Amino acid sequence: MEKVTAYINENKQRFLDELFGLIRIPSISSIADHKPDMQRAAEYWKETILKAGATKAEIIATPGNPVVYGEKIIDPSKPTVLVYAHYDVMPVDPIDLWKSPPFEPEIRDEKIFARGADDDKGQSFMHAKAFEAMVQTGQLPCNVKFMIEGEEEIGSPNLEQFCRDHKDMLKADIILVSDTGMIAQDIPSITVGLRGLAYLEVEVTGPNRDLHSGLFGGAVANPINVLSKMIASLTDEENRITIPGFYDKVIELSAEERSEMAKAPFELEEYKKAIDIKEVSGEEGYSTIERTGIRPTLDVCGIWGGYTGEGAKTVLPSKAYAKISMRLVPNQEHEEISELFARHFESIAPNSVKVKVTNLHGGQGYVSPTDTKDYKSASLAYEKTFGKMPIPTRSGGSIPIISTFERVLGTKSILMGFGLESDAIHSPNENYPLFNFYKGLETIPWFYKYFTEDQNA
Amino acid sequence: MEKVTAYINENKQRFLDELFGLIRIPSISSIADHKPDMQRAAEYWKETILKAGATKAEIIATPGNPVVYGEKIIDPSKPTVLVYAHYDVMPVDPIDLWKSPPFEPEIRDEKIFARGADDDKGQSFMHAKAFEAMVQTGQLPCNVKFMIEGEEEIGSPNLEQFCRDHKDMLKADIILVSDTGMIAQDIPSITVGLRGLAYLEVEVTGPNRDLHSGLFGGAVANPINVLSKMIASLTDEENRITIPGFYDKVIELSAEERSEMAKAPFELEEYKKAIDIKEVSGEEGYSTIERTGIRPTLDVCGIWGGYTGEGAKTVLPSKAYAKISMRLVPNQEHEEISELFARHFESIAPNSVKVKVTNLHGGQGYVSPTDTKDYKSASLAYEKTFGKMPIPTRSGGSIPIISTFERVLGTKSILMGFGLESDAIHSPNENYPLFNFYKGLETIPWFYKYFTEDQNA
Questions:
Q1: Span A106-129, pLDDT tens digits
Q2: Which of B206, B216, B232 has the CB atom closest to A292's CB atom?
Q3: Pairing mode of beta strands B111-113, B143-149
Q4: What CATH number matches the domain at B2-194+365-456, 3.30.565.10, 3.40.630.10, 1.20.1440.20, 2.60.40.10?
Q5: End-to-end CA distance of chain A, in Å?
Q6: Could you say which of A90, A214, A298 has the minimum Cβ distance to residue B397?
Q7: Where are the strands (E) in B245-345, listed by range?
Q8: Is B437 in contact with B200 (CB distance < 8 Å)?
Q9: Are B247 and B356 in contact (CB under 8 A)?
Q10: Complex ipTM, two decimals?
Q11: Which of the residues A152, A204, A323, A334 would you substitute to probe the B interface, choosing the one with the greatest number of B C-beta atoms within 10 Å?
């Protein structure tokens, strides 16, 4: 393994330069104008894998953005690791809050600043380069496959079918994913739980046109006032969600499990300071870690209606809109929750308005045990490079496709995420520390080694 | 008076063409980019008055947009009518809902479609042309002064000082204003009450930057959810405003006054059909006419925050905003209400967010009795041209400066408005029927005649 480490050290700057090349492609999957960038990003990945040493790499079309598939089969009797990642990124607005242009990566304070620096270009590129280092030094211990998709940030609408269509090709012993975070640079952790997601847009229509708020105000329902009341009513005074049936399938953790979770290091004062809030806020009876780890939530991701320009225009608007996301926990079914939401939202609308609910996307949550071979191999790898055992954690985030992999391919995933909470993924000034990039790169080959040894044992 | 009527009939088309010239100047007072248009509109008015026969007309600078002043003093011993109007207009968004460009006036279905067609370019131009007709036919019975301002739609921030600075110049027996509506083309009415206005913007800040709604959602207050709850709490289940002290100074009408008001023709089904709503909605215990006429209200005129673009971006935003207007009735003081609102809004903010309240504009309401000489003269004028007595009504709209005129100049106003509810003022496709334009033009000289005779009597 010294050879692998030496190779990485010798090529550090080139790896970074090549990552920057990928980052410079503005592959925003949710904005139709960026379609050509999706193709460019896929081609960049194909070349990257081939140059790294894959025996095969191809771009496979889907009804949406293409999937990049690559492989190196050294011995069919050896175990196979399937690396899953995504080349698409989130939109960049509000653009004026970025200190440097989102698609011109810049190093400041030993961090890469750019959209995708962490999520998921930075994290996924560690795998390409760890693979290259193992191949070029003759140290690859097992078979490797790559599946890099371009629709993760919009809910992977075509990947389930892709998996169904390519079951044999994607056969593997484990799916390896770096698209999550760890607690801190000196506190490695492995994500063993992810939340599911239901995301809907609501439209509330009052009068059929914008009205003069003086002539009509007070007599005609204002859709913004009404929408505010409807949103307000979705959570109660204890911050519990009021949609009937919402909690029916939520698995309550035992006191023991909760006390185990409570051992994870967490500094409330630092947490509040980092995002400049006076108080945290969430469901009564649960800690901050529990609120994001084991409890479902409802957040309005966007709201708009009426006059939002300069100055004081009075208007009683015709329409108001909101985008509402719910993070789900095992065993909540996202289709069922979306349906419950829609039915409830329609039912609470007063007769003075019309309501339209559109389901925009969704996915299942995921939990994995910590007594598996893959978890143990990952744990050993972190111990080797960080000098301490990682802590198993549950993330509040969602990678809906992980549960699909298990269902469709029958393959478990191991989430070796190297991001930090301060990476500001999905936000302006997304960043990824060079420490994490190189440390992740160094850790991954150890996973391959331990996982292969364990499988062969 | 036949000469006046004949002059109007002979010049109908030219009057319209000249009005179109004024409408084509996009004099939006709330948008700084339109500053040069304000000057152009003022110059257009100055020329209009001079050509009509004023002996003097000038553009007087203020710290904001200039005021156009003009006069024709035929005999200092005769009464003086001061015409007040405004040359500024509201913004035009949402622009995509306009069927024809807002500043390219177009006649469809016997109506002028354009921003300002009614409010207030169409209505004010009737005065310029009625004046011209009286002067050119030698029928002007009294002295006339014009005061045309450019900041009415942003709350006339400089007109009070202007009045203080030019008290003598503005001395008059009555202020004549056409900036309100009437019940229907065959039901003339005179507005004897106007609501006041308090308009504020609120900003709710949660975390100091947009956060990943998965990683933080459920544990950190979402400013949109919080703002929705705060707005929702501003009105109770009976649609009464919950701000402490808000109703303290509201004058409750007597049962007799309310039964008098209830006599005004009003077709609820037609009202609902015109704006395509299933049910009206407002303060319990009051009729639709009362809700807009004699009761104060709270409307959110605009709301925004988070992701409002295409697709399903998940985000826990840093900030959410709303523009909130309150229509006030006598004797509510707008400064006091703004202060009550701000204090209350800050007090209901949970500790998990920060709140900023900015006062954007305000003005007092107005009520005038119906037993005055000016009301009687106006009433006779309508009877002459419409063939029936006008009905006194209270408008839900606000012309804050009217109460200022009374306070500062000691002069009452008579509100001879010729607009219709269907004119869609402040909205896309604002329009003004040619019938109303010409009928108003015809009615105004009769007011001059009766008012002068009455004053001389």
A1: 999 999 999 999 999 999 999 999
A2: B216
A3: unpaired
A4: 3.40.630.10
A5: 19
A6: A214
A7: 297-306, 319-328
A8: no
A9: no
A10: 0.80
A11: A323
